[in-house]
Design goal:
The protein has one domain. Helix content is about 95%, strand content about 0%. It is built from 2 helices and no strands.
């Protein structure tokens, strides 16, 4: 969903840029371009938040597995020292 919105914003910005190359943009087109850039920034921010949350979840899952492995390894070393 976010990716489609981002691509749509980029497409519209490119269209406005192409029209600006041909002739000067009017006041409303310039305002639309500014709004599109703000919207694009917001979409990118939301995508970063989603990726950050996914990374945290992945880290938590892998961190738990690492903790179990580390705990087991420590128990083995402790039992070897006691023998």
């Amino acid at each position: 969903m976010l990716n489609k919105q981002g691509k749509n914003c980029i497409r519209k910005i490119k269209e406005l840029d192409a029209r600006d190359d041909e002739s000067e943009l009017d006041k409303f087109d310039k305002e639309d371009r500014i709004i599109l850039f703000a919207e694009q920034s917001w979409i990118f921010f939301k995508q970063e938040v989603v990726l950050y949350k996914k990374a945290c979840l992945k880290w938590l899952k892998q961190g738990d597995l690492n903790s179990i492995f580390f705990s087991f390894d420590c128990q083995v070393e402790k039992s070897e020292k006691q023998d």
